[in-house]
Amino acid sequence: MSEQTENNHVVLEARGVTKHFAVRRTSRDLVAGRRRTVHAVDDVSLQLRRGTVTALVGESGSGKSTVARLLAQLYPLTGGEIHLGGQAVKAGRGRSFRSYVRRVQLIFQDPFASLNPVHTVRYHLTRALKIHGRAGSGDEELEQNLTALLNRVQLTPPHQYLDKFPHELSGGQRQRVAIARALGADPQVLLADEPVSMLDVSIRLGVLNLLRDLKDRMHLAILYITHDIASARYFADSTLVMYAGRIVEGGDSETVTQRPAHPYTQLLIASAPDPDRVADEEEQEETGSGEPPSLIDPPAGCRFHPRCPKAMERCRTELPPRFDLADGQWAACWLYDGTAGDTTTGDHEKKVAAK
Ligand code: SF4
C-alpha cells in the first residue's frame, strides 16, 4: 500500500455512538418513581484515518472524554457501533480486549497519575512490551526495544531515563514516557485525552510536535481531545466540535477555526485567549455566553438554544440535522437549512444543502 493510500485509510470509526449513564436513585427519585439518566454522548459519528490528527473540541462536560473511553472500549455502548479496520468490534474482556488495545491506545491527561510512582521507566515500558508480545527473545533484545521506544519519544540518551522514577521526571518527560508505553503496543490509533492540558505552557508545544512526528513517521491515526480550539488549528488536520454530548460542527481545522459556522464554535473561538482581541459586551451579545446545560435533562431541540443569540422558534423543539457547507465543512444548525430561507450568518455566505 502506498504512503498516500495508507494515510487516507479509515482505521477506527464510530457510527451513531451513544452512551447514557444511569444516575444513582435518591430517596426523592424513589418516592417519585423516576429513573434519571445522564445523556453523556448522543449519536456521535467520526472517522479516524491513518496519518492524520482529528481534534475533538469542546468545553468541560461536553462528553469528549467519554467518546475517547468509548473508542477505547472502556465502557459498553448504549447504542451505535465501533468499527476497527472495517469490522464492527465489541471488545469485551480478556483476549479480545487485549487484541483491541494492541491496536488502539489511550493516553491520559495526567501523566503522573497514569504512571505508578513506585516503579521505574524501565518497569513501565518492559511491562507494556511483554503484555503486547514485543519484548524480544532475550535481555539484549529487550534492552534494544526499550532504547528504541525512548528514542522514538525523544528522551535521549535513553540510559539516562530508563532507571528513573516518575517523580524524578518533569511533567513533559512523564507524558513522553506515557506515550512510549502506548507505543510499546505498536498501535494504529492513539486516543490522546487532553494530553498537554496539565503541562506547563512552555513544554506543551514540544509534546504536540512529538505527536505530530509520530503521526507522520508511524502513520498513526490520532484523536486529539482538547478544550483549546486554538491548538486544534495548529495541530489537527480536521476538527470536530462537541456540545452537550453531540457533535455540532466538523471540517478541516483551518476552515472550522477561521470560518466557524455553528454559533457554538463561534462562541468557543470568541472565548479563546487572544491578546489582540478583548471581547467587548457587543461581541459577547453576538456570540452568546452562559453555562452548558445539565446532561440529565438536556434541552429539547438544539441543545445550544438556551445560549444561542441566533436561536429561532424551531430551535427549541426540533433537533437540527447535519447540513453540508462548502469545502467539506458541515454544521448541525437550522441557520443552514436551505428551506428556512436564511442561509447566511454573519460573513458566512455559503450555499448549503441539507444532507
Ligand atoms: Fe442556534 Fe438554532 Fe443553530 Fe442551535 S440550531 S445553534 S439554537 S441557530
TrEMBL record:
CDD domains on file: ABC_NikE_OppD_transporters (cd03257)
GO MF, one example: ATP binding
Alphabetically ordered keywords of this record: ATP-binding, Nucleotide-binding, Transport
Region (Disordered), start-end ranges: 270-302
Biased amino acid composition, Acidic residues: 279-288
InterPro entries attached to this UniProt entry: AAA+_ATPase, ABC_transp_ATP-bind, ABC_transporter-like_ATP-bd, ABC_transporter-like_CS, Oligopep_ABC_C
Entry keyword Endoplasmic reticulum: no
Residues annotated as signal peptide: none
Residue ranges constituting the ABC transporter domain according to the UniProt record: 12-269
One Pfam family named in its UniProt record: oligo_HPY
Top-level taxon of origin: Bacteria
NCBIfam families named in the record: oligo_HPY
Name listed for the protein in its UniProt record: ABC transporter ATP-binding protein
Species lineage: Bacteria, Bacillati, Actinomycetota, Actinomycetes, Kitasatosporales
